[in-house]
Design goal:
single chain, about 170 residues, alpha/beta, Rossmann fold, 6-stranded mixed beta sheet, two-stranded antiparallel sheet, 8 strands, about 45% helix, globular, binds flavin mononucleotide
Length: about 170
């Protein structure tokens, strides 16, 4: 039985729901998956594979998710890892969204070269301007994020299912 830990960070909760959907899909595909927030530093030892993800803010993951991946890299060495970003940039500009995600991953892998990344993806996220604290409203004025729920659940489902073979092959 492949045990999978899905680790995520979130500021407004929408990525938590994405992590839950991934867990549901992996479990439905015969794996044994659990979700945990990166800020809780879940111990990786009892898992065979990992999904780690975060929304992009200003082109970067929430720091606790990047730190988790970088700090745990030595402890999860050969085990397969899949990385995902959530974002708003790709809603209107898919190539720019993908480029931002790839750039962040490139930097992450530079600091954590032992991560065995078998897959990665960027998905459109969820954003309500009215939820923002005043300081993020200022940031948002410079690069407005499209409002609303743009999460494509079937795309998330298909990617989650695609991990099953990759995790089994790389165990
Ligand atoms: C201030 C601010 C900055 C953001 N910066 C980016 C960004 O650089 N790239 C991107 O693709 N999305 C960006 N977003 C969109 C969020 O990544 C997206 O809404 C995400 O789904 C939020 O996830 P959460 O609810 O888990 O925090 C930004 C949103 C806000 C409010």
């Amino acid at each position: 039985m492949t045990r999978v830990l899905v680790v995520y960070a979130t500021r407004f909760g929408s990525t938590r729901e994405v992590a839950s959907a991934m867990v549901h899909e992996l479990n439905a595909s015969g794996l044994q998956a659990h979700a945990a927030e990166a800020s809780n530093s879940p111990p990786p030892e009892n898992y065979d594979a990992f999904v780690i993800g975060s929304p992009l803010y200003g082109g970067k993951w929430i720091s606790v998710a990047g730190l988790y991946a970088a700090l745990m890299a030595g402890r999860i060495k050969e085990k397969p890892v899949a990385l995902f970003s959530m974002g708003g940039l790709g809603i209107k500009h898919p190539e720019a969204g993908l480029a931002q995600h790839k750039e962040f991953l490139k930097n992450l892998i530079e600091v954590a070269p032992s991560l065995n990344v078998v897959s990665d993806a960027v998905f459109s996220g969820y954003f309500e301007r009215s939820n923002l604290p005043w300081y993020l409203k200022i940031v948002d004025r410079f690069a407005p994020t499209p409002q609303g729920d743009h999460r494509d659940w079937s795309k998330i489902q298909i990617w989650s299912r695609s991990l099953v073979t990759k995790f089994r092959l790389n165990q």
